[in-house]
Amino acid sequence: MKIAFFDTKPYDKQFFDIYGEKHGVEFKYYEAKLNCDTVGLAKGYDGVCAFVNDTVDASVIDSLEAMGIKILALRCAGYNNVDMKHAFGRIHVLRVPAYSPYAVAEHTMALLLTSIRRIHKAYIRTKDFNFSLSGFTGFDLHGKTVGIIGTGKIGRVFTDICKGFGMKVLAYDKYPAEGYEDGEKVKYVDTDTIFRESDVISLHCPLTEETRHIINKDTIEKCKKGVVILNTSRGGLVDAEALLNGIKERKVGAACLDVYEEEADLFFEDYSGHIVEDDTLARLISMPNVIVTSHQAFLTQEALSNIAETTVRNIVEMSKNGMCQNELCYRCGNTVDCKDGKCF
Ligand code: NAD
């Protein structure tokens, strides 16, 4: 099996080479992102492997189909960058549903602690032998309320971490999970209650038409003054302009963003010598109470190894059996089982 691998980074190769060799899958690594200009690079391959900022729209899918390519192996969980409706019946879309919820949940807490205890500022100060503490007053997480939107794999691990800190958890999920609630410590509520009562709000739901800009001007208005917004899910969940205004108006106390709506052209690359054209992102980064990481929450040894192993297994399973347990159904985003009943 030969697979064209797009948007390659050195840390991808390390793990994909190991599992590729083990299972007889050969990867051709391209640094280019997959889009309508680069899709031609996949000619002659049995499948393509794509990541979060590759653009798999209708035209890319049509080109892949015309080249006889039947496998699109996403090496991530989210698939909002794929036109799933168009893909149906044309190309099998495989994904890695879980690789390390701990990686993302732990990074979310790292961002929260960094921001509220001003670690990012203290690091720079002490590097310059400035040992003053002015401006570094934080607050205890113990006893505070965290609002968690999306209680899937990552949201649940983040819930446990917050419980460990002695926080009260208010949660919202479109499909509440049985056994998730824990007396007064963890409760499902509606989103309005989350916005009204939370000191910290953390997003762990997928990006859909329903959740796009779930953090917007109106919802920020409902929040407590000083609320901390955490987004390690998908950039489109937050209206960045509204967030910036919330920060300027001192309504939002801090924001930690591992993802950004317009990240596709910037994140994962070095723009340190360039002039960044995105004024909203530049202004957000300039704020002392905003921390931006460039979609790195997943980046642990464990997650990279799991991603490579599952992606290679998905490709082998699909090519051998014509089906794969991690294939997506375009209607509900679930696995191939849906095609056997629930959705059709
Ligand atoms: P998951 O599928 O296990 O959980 C998502 C949860 O969101 C589910 O419980 C689902 O019921 C809920 N949900 C669906 N629609 C909703 C809605 N309209 N409102 C509220 N909740 C809704 O997914 P996961 O593995 O926990 O991942 C969560 C998100 O994290 C993914 O969608 C992905 O975008 C993001 N992610 C980010 C990184 C990173 O590196 N920053 C890495 C992995 C995943």
Q: What can you see in these coordinates?
A:
- This protein folds into 2 domains: about 1-100 and about 300-335, Rossmann fold (3-Layer(aba) Sandwich), CATH 3.40.50.720; about 100-290, Rossmann fold.
- About 35% of the residues lie in helices and about 15% in strands.
- It is an alpha/beta fold.
- Strands 8-7-6-9-10-11-12 form a 7-stranded parallel β-sheet, with helices on both faces. The chain has a 5-stranded parallel β-sheet with strand order 2-1-3-4-5, covered by helices on one side.
- It has helices at about 10-25, 60-65, 85, 100-115, 120-125, 155-165, 190-195, 215-220, 240-250, 280-285, 300-320; strands spanning about 1-5, 25-30, 45-50, 70-75, 90-95, 145-150, 170, 185-190, 200-205, 225-230, 250-255, 290.
- It contains 11 helices and 12 strands.
- The mean pLDDT is about 95.
- Helix 1 (about 10-25) packs across helix 11 (about 300-320) and helix 4 (about 100-115) packs across helix 6.
- The structure holds nicotinamide-adenine-dinucleotide (NAD).
- The site of nicotinamide-adenine-dinucleotide (NAD) has 30 residues, from helix 4 and helix 6.
